[in-house]
Amino acid sequence: MARPAHDYARVDKHVPVTRRAETNNPYSPVMILLSLIATLGILFYAQFLLNPANRGDLLPYSLVIIAEVILVTHALLSMWTILSGAKSPRDFAFHNAKEFLFDPELNERLGVTDLPHLWPVLINGQEVDVDVFITVYGEELAKIRATATAALAIHGKHRTWILDDGRSDEVKAMAAELGCHYVRRLSSNGAKAGNVNYALSIAKGDYFCIFDADFVPEREFLLETVPFFVHSNVAFVQTPQTYGNLVNLVSRGAGYMQAVFYKFVQPGRNHFNAAFCVGTNVIFRRAAINDVGGIYTDSKSEDVWTSLKLHENGWRSVYIPKTLAVGDAPETIEAYTKQQLRWATGGFEIMLTHNPLSPRRKLTSDQRIMYLVTATHYLTGIAPALLLLVPPLEIFFDLRPVDLGTSFTTWLLFYAGFYVMQILLAFYTLGSFRWEVLMLASVSFPIYISALLNAISGKEQKWHVTGSKTQAQSPFNFMIPQVLTFVFLLLTSGVAIWRDVDNTLFTLATAWNLINTFILGAFMVVAFRESWRIKHPQPTPADSEVADKPAHLTTVIVPRELEQSLGVPAEDIVLDGAVRPVETYAPTRAAVNGDHPELAVNGDHPDFATINGAAPKRAEKEVLPS
Amino acid sequence: MTWINRLRLFGGVLAVILLVAILTLIFNQRQTKVASVNATVSADQYDLAAAYGGTITKQFVNEGDSVKKGDKLFTVQSVALQQDVNQGLDITSTDAYDVNQKKGVLTYKAVVDGDLTSLKAKLGNTLATGTPFGTITVGGTQFVTADYLLSPRDYERVQKGAEVSVLLPNNQSVIGTVASTKVQTNAGQAQTQVRVTSDSLAEPDLDALTKPGTPVTATLNLRDDGPLAGVSDVTFNFLRQIGLR
Rounded distance, CA B5 to CA A483, Å? Predict the structure, then answer.
């Protein structure tokens, strides 16, 4: 074990890396400066594109303008949102209510001092009833068990309910074994929203939490969220979705895609009073939901719609960027496609049927703008489709988006002003730039296009797959448009190279087309690997092992100095010859649970928190979520 | 993958290949064509000039008149002619003028059939010897002079007799052929002037659109020696055969 370079006693529980994480200011002046420079870059890029002197042929020019206007507008709005979020939503009333949430004397009197999950929850000295709902729809039993076990252990007296739309007798037996309430309804109308509404007709608590079956809550969940309800106008408190399974390209891409949203965008939206519910890791005030007639059932995106209804009725929403539950990002292309399709359809539904700018909506200007962003956000996912068409237009038809007279360097300069600055900003705010995110974002346009079509037609996407819910499907079932686009771009690249060799002139169109082909190609490789994995499944660990442990563990490397404060027995720590100074890599539990989840669990430092034991062998300890 | 998805994927890939094939043919077709930078209708023109200068004493025609070969144009009273005659030179009549040695006058005549497209001289003017005073444009000899900016490789593919499509101002196109080329080099590019002849230009109903000086666009077919030459020919012959082109 490496020793610190000095003999002074530590004055806090931290080691340098965790202390840095703890004292890190997400709204640092450098970030503000970068945002300002990025804004300038956007403005220069916009004036370059709109300058009539640079205008090229009408068709590709229009495509570029439409796509870039969408992207640029959303980039500007998102930077504005991010910079608005610097203030914490926790005020004196919150801290005061948190102080008195549990009453040790009362606990003593009731004889439950050692049973924190039975401590009465007090707001303004009054005991309140809390229900915890776990929505289940055919998930793996081990996952449900982990979530239910963790939910039962949440500090504060609460009732835990498993709402089983999967109608599994195994789940029912498990609920009985663990001591959860079990609810099964006869119909499955309204999907998840219907499931929760049905449970609300049985469970009558003042507050209810919702966790998806794969989101394992932390014990402090109620302690960190319930005190906000001391303000009688708070309808719900949302916490981030933190992913513990960033094990492959799809899950990393999908996970990091959300990182900016949960780390910066939602906190910013707080100040517009437009932070919206994301369906899990959330606690609602029962009275608020009653006020809007229950969870909204007419959409698959019940979460956003319910938030919108609550905001229209004047309720307040709170978002805290503190990880209080760890779950799974979609690991397969199938899961990713379905998730994005559901979210995007919800957004487009608002755009098409519930224009937030309409004078009929009772929203504040702040909320109107934010819901307009939500409603149109997935158009940014369609923009890449328009941009993919531009190089083939030049290759086959000689139609150019910008005037031939515009030199390559001029164009590059303005282009970099927008894109390079956005990447720099992402790099700075998230600590790294993830090419997986860019790859996944630029190949997802068929999903968003079908979401738009679904929202227009009001129909649901049909997948031509076998009916099995548990057996994994070949990813190619869900990506036929991407495969066809790839074939098209590949053939077009061939024609482009032939043309350039013929004309002895290398064109920008060829370069772009090759890049696009490469990106789509990378996605094809990902799909082939996934397909191969499905056909050649790894031998699964013995069932008993699965049953003993939650399916997804957050493995955290713990330095010996911190064992005491973390409550981890020293003998559990395995060393591999102490080759590396362990503490340089070690976050504490405080970092994992801290206000900056991405730094740890969701972070860009795989050395920090390694997932499912995939890390190099070092001193490892699995911090169980319960 | 399910079978229905395999079929969809297979059908989709076929459709994409077909689409790219069609686009490639279009692209290849465009590769063998080049549009003119500047093109205009021209015609054979004869300049009228005085062999002997002098004062115009009679004018037989006006600008815009049609003339036949041998029609009288002007009569000129020429001092120079009289001096030559006095010095003993024998000036005889030609196709271009009749000479009256006694009076010292010449009568200029049209040497070809055509239109007097310009006429600078008027009755009473003095003509200087050798200076052009009018132009006869010969009807039915319209051709197109088209300028192209070509790469050396493309210049090599310009063939005499190659088909040229001439787009008139009314968007009607007529087909011509390359009669001759002139070239000069500018910054490594071949500035090529092509003379395109076409019988259609002389058609009377296109009279207004084929006057010399009319701007047109002339699209030149270069020799297609790429790998798709045969495929293109087969495809376009087929389209022509079934009446689509």
Answer: 12
Among A492, A500, A513, most B C-beta atoms within 10 A, so best to mutate, is A492
State the count of interchain CB pairs (< 8 A) between A and B: 57
Distance CA A284, CA A515 (A): 46
Contacts of B23 in chain A (CB under 8 A): 392, 396, 492, 495
Mean pLDDT score, A127-141:
91
Among B9, B30, B226, the residue with its CB nearest the CB of A476 is B9
Burial (CB count within 10 angstroms: exposed 0-12, middle 13-18, buried 19+), residue A495: buried
**Cβ contact B115:B31 at 8 Å:** no
Find chain A residues with C-beta within 8 A of B26's C-beta: 396-397
Spatial distance between the Cα atoms of A351 and B148, rounded to a whole number of angstroms: 52
Q: Are A301 and A193 in contact (CB under 8 A)?
A: no
Q: How far is B141 from chain A (nearest CA, A)?
A: 36
Confidence category of residue A557, pLDDT binned at 50, 70, 90: very low
**Chain A residues inside the 8 Å CB shell of B13:** 483-484, 487
Structure token digits, residue A470: 């548990």
- As a three-state string, the secondary structure of A95-141 is HHHHHCCCCHHHHHHHCCCCCHHHCCEEECCEEECEEEEEEECCCCH
What ipTM does the predicted assembly reach?
Answer: 0.71
Distance CA B124, CA B113 (A): 26
Q: Which of A583, A623, A614, A594 is nearest to A15 (CA)?
A: A583
Give the H or E element holding residue B132: strand B132-137
Are residues A499 and B30, on separate chains, in Cβ contact within 8 Å? no
Q: Does B226 contact A502 at a Cβ distance shorter than 8 Å?
A: yes
Q: From CA A460, how far away is CA A43, in angstroms rounded?
A: 39
**In whole angstroms, what is the distance from residue A355 CA to residue B95 CA?**
88
Mean pLDDT value of segment A334-339: 88
Choose among B13, B16, B26: nearest Cβ to A396: B26
| Residue A351 tokens, joined | 């755009």
What pLDDT is recorded for position A586? 36
On the 0-12 / 13-18 / 19+ scale of CB atoms within 10 A, A229 is buried
Do residue A464 and residue B4 have CB atoms under 8 angstroms apart?
yes
Amino acid identity for residue B79 in this structure? V
Decide if pLDDT at B68 tops 60: yes
Of A395, A397, A484, the CB nearest to B12: A484
Do the chains contact at A495 and B23, CB–CB below 8 Å?
Answer: yes
Residue A582: what are its φ and ψ, rounded to 5°?
Answer: -60, -35
Of A396, A483, A499, the CB nearest to B9: A483
Q: What distance in Å separates the CA atoms of residue A57 and residue A404, rounded to the nearest whole number?
A: 10
Number of helices (H) and strands (E) in chain A: give both, helices first. 24, 15
Compute the distance between CA of residue A367 and CA of residue A375 in angstroms, rounded to an integer: 12
Instruction: Look at the block and give the residue holding tokens 């660990």.
Output: A541
Residue B56 β-bridge partners: B76
Chain B residues with CB-CB distance to A under 8 A?
1-2, 4-5, 8-9, 12-13, 15-17, 19-20, 23-24, 26-27, 30-31, 151, 153, 226
Distance CA A66, CA A75 (A): 14
| AA letter at A16 | P
Residue B59 has pLDDT above 70, yes or no: yes
d(C-alpha A292, C-alpha A304), whole Å: 13
